Amino acid sequence: MRKALAVVVGLVALAGVASAQTFVWPQKWTVAKPSEVKRGGTLRAAVISDYRTFNPFIAAEAGNVPDIISGGRGLVTRDPTTGDWIPYMAESWTISPNKLEITFKIRRGMKWSDGKPITADDWIMTWRIHTDKAVGSNSYDSFFIDGKPITLRKIDDYTIRFIYPKTDADAFAVASFEPWPAHIFGPVYQKEGAEGIKKMWTLNEKPNNIVSGGPWLIESYRPGERLVLKRNPAFGEWNKDEAGNPLPYLDRYEIKIVKDVNAQLAEFLAGNIDLMAPATVDHISQIRQAIQQGRLDATIKVNASPVASSQFMVFNWNKASDPFKQSLFRSDKFRRAMSHLVNRQAVIDIVYGGLGTPMYSSVYPVLTQWVNPKVPKYEYNLQQAAKLLAELGFTKKDKDGYLVDSKGRRLEFNLATNAGNNQREQIAKLIVDEAKKVGVKVNFQAIDFNTLVGQLLSSGPDRPFDAIIIGLSGGSLDWPFGSNVVPCKGNLHMWNKSGQCLDPRETQLDALYSRGRTELDFKKRVEIGYRMQEIEAQLLPVIYIAGPNYHPAWNNRLGGEHPDAIISSIWGQRELELTFIKK
């Protein structure tokens, strides 16, 4: 399934209030009983990067507005207590004997926030737009297997069929995409095509024009300051708790935009926001101390799980205007040398205060059954880095102490990450310092997140960056390799956006990705995943670094968190729909 630059066939009532077929949110997903719940109030949170768009077809970053207001769910979702797929916007499904077709019966009575019914047309139109290459959707790659399209067919207004070109281990993950209103996007797409779609729902759009089928509506947005969401009454007509109460319980969800994680922490310590996931031991200590001293009434779960995201450094293989750097960045020997410069243990100790996990492959550490324990590791070793660079011809240093080749070209590159992410900035500075020890000049700059993402998503022979530190979240538990990352034409194949494989190992990974995704035997699929990680380690298309462990914290004015058994970086600390204000 696709990944993003950072969910929920079972417990269903067959009939509900006002003719809507109700989805009943299981009480086992929360520690609270319906009788304990209070309605109303505002959930308060903070983010360190401003939003890029309200448009679901061009959003690529984790935590984007369309994902928030929609709830990020589609026909099916996962039960966090079991990990199994269950019906959500569908009431049921049937699978063909050859496992190439899944027919979903859509839940009746669901409505968009403007009162229009949610029907099969909405999935069909959403799929058509996502699969228009000219739109540039981050979901585009999810709808193809080995270059062949997954197609959707409307059977009737409340029946839709997914037709897969091959068996697909990610079949239900594909079907979990959230629909968007055909009556809003369809006329524009039919008249103006992809260009018309890309102009829709910018940050300047009036909130009343943003139609949602999920738990939230946009009430207001002030760039650089805050996003305020309000409860969508239409959602509560078919989403209920076990006592029949409409969801969400909250009236509003307010998200402040702050300058960095230190500012985010200050807001949490002051009791101004309700949610936090501290990444460093210093931040954890400050929260614990505030709790112990009675200055903050909050809960923190230290080391709840390993991380379900990645942090890495990626080099740009597409620099036609600078053949020297392009040749360097395409060299696996150079990238191995750079991996040897990354002191992952120092990152864990200094940046994460010892509460982190080193990374050597694209599989998130929390997915332990998928992590290949024998994957080759190019660990911190300055002597080995220097040796590899010497083999590339960098044997002498200039008057400033930096390596140069036989033509006098200095070994130097620019490194960027998103401003405000203090941990990534610290990681970058550690890399700068280690690189200098062997004579590599790294020029670091923290830049605006949206600018950074724009550079990373750029395509063609000459892209505007050298190296970037960033991370990925999202993906699938059934096949944890990104459909938009591994294939050479993927939207997040970020080291090489030329549109074609440039290294034979890229081609191998592309083929193995398809082979694994179409393998329904779990054990065989894991074996393919292990092989992919071995090839990734040889190719090093990106250099994985380390990630913090997951330490969720919340203000105790909130109720409705998950039971401890399911609090993890995969499922989070709670379902917002079941969250309420206790006091």
From TrEMBL:
<dbReference type="InterPro" id="IPR030678">
    <property type="entry name" value="Peptide/Ni-bd"/>
</dbReference>
<dbReference type="GO" id="GO:0043190">
    <property type="term" value="C:ATP-binding cassette (ABC) transporter complex"/>
</dbReference>
<comment type="similarity">
    <text>Belongs to the bacterial solute-binding protein 5 family.</text>
</comment>
<feature type="domain" description="Solute-binding protein family 5">
    <location>
        <begin position="86"/>
        <end position="479"/>
    </location>
</feature>
<dbReference type="InterPro" id="IPR023765">
    <property type="entry name" value="SBP_5_CS"/>
</dbReference>
<keyword id="KW-0732">Signal</keyword>
<dbReference type="Pfam" id="PF00496">
    <property type="entry name" value="SBP_bac_5"/>
</dbReference>
<dbReference type="InterPro" id="IPR000914">
    <property type="entry name" value="SBP_5_dom"/>
</dbReference>
<protein>
    <submittedName>
        <fullName>Peptide-binding protein</fullName>
    </submittedName>
</protein>
<dbReference type="InterPro" id="IPR039424">
    <property type="entry name" value="SBP_5"/>
</dbReference>
<feature type="signal peptide">
    <location>
        <begin position="1"/>
        <end position="20"/>
    </location>
</feature>
<dbReference type="GO" id="GO:0042597">
    <property type="term" value="C:periplasmic space"/>
</dbReference>
<dbReference type="GO" id="GO:1904680">
    <property type="term" value="F:peptide transmembrane transporter activity"/>
</dbReference>
<keyword id="KW-0813">Transport</keyword>
<dbReference type="GO" id="GO:0015833">
    <property type="term" value="P:peptide transport"/>
</dbReference>
